[in-house]
Amino acid sequence: MKEIKENSFIFECHEVIQKSMCEQIINRFEEDKDGQYRGKIGQTVKSDESIKNLRIFL
Q1: Where in the chain are the domains?
Q2: What DSSP string describes 14-43?
Q3: Confidence at residue 51, expressed as pLDDT on a 0 to 100 scale
């Protein structure tokens, strides 16, 4: 497991869950437009667009 950027709370993990489960998680996220905020991370809702993107590879 590797953190994308220090203190980003975004981690990259390979082959942790089945592909079908990953697709369900991605679909749920993409459908929840009200829960998405551009570049905001963590409890402090600090904005840092350099570490947040929606590029998800299966």
Answers
A1: 2-39
A2: SSSS-HHHHHHHHHHHHH-GGG--TTEETT
A3: 60
